[in-house]
Sequence to fold (307 residues):
Amino acid sequence: MAATQYVHAEKYESSEVKLFSQKTKEEPQNLAFLSPTMAEYLRSDIPGKKILDIGCGIGNWCYKAAECGAKSVDGFDIQEEMVELAKKANSKFNMVKIQVGDVMCMPYDDNVFDVAFSFYITCALRPEACIKHFEELYRVLAPGGKALVVAHSRPAFEKLFLRSGADKTAVEEKITDQLMHLKQYPSLSEINYAFQSFNEVLRAIFTLDENGYLQETREVGKLSIGQIVWVKTQITTFPDYFYDDQFIQQQSNAAGLNIDRIENYYTEERRIAYNKTNPEIKLDKDITDTPPILMYHLSKPVNNLLT
Fold:
């Protein structure tokens, strides 16, 4: 299947892929606020296991899995530049194999992996590809295998998340002013240039109106499944597809996967731990009260072999 199934592959230019990769390497803990969240999972579920990293990007989690004692680590990504960066980053590990691949047809046999990571992959896929992603995830997992799917939750599309102490009114005025200066159907480069001074913003959501002008949105009811949204984070701004919590759960179940539990990314303990390691950012308590990200702990039933 062509890379046009992926909003990121459609929208990123070569120079922007390199820029995002460089910023991620410079600020690795900012990749997904995952440092405190994943520590326990990596210690308990990775050693001695066969790991798959779906949409591995520059290979951060391949590296972490290898470092934590995985038996083998496979990763793939649709973008060749990302794959080359990931290979270089993991070159010291003989058990890590990274290649170009597509979630619509993962380049692996059935019933292979003990653990699979899918971090922010669903939001990069068109609806038909997102559905196929869960089917393929089921196929490549060994019976009893686990998957950790990280995806945006409903509050991610309903709130403006700011750094602790930021003046919300002043930030909103700045956003409004910049939006007024953007032309119709702005490019990714133009959006990032306009938003580069929004240092107080941890997360904001934008959509194109019917005339092609970018607008901030906090009304989930006006979004449709699979609609393209523009996500401003502390690193960059990028396009994603909108899926709500119900859609992710429905597709997991439809593919035959068990939902063992759903966990908020940002527990209060993890928020405190993150703030200790990232004092220049400081997450407010609203990020635990209305968490923008969920972790879906999925598993493949032991008695359900794919035929």
Summary: The chain has eleven helices and twelve strands. Residues 127-140 form the longest helix (14 residues). The mean pLDDT is 83. The two ends are 23 Å apart (CA to CA).
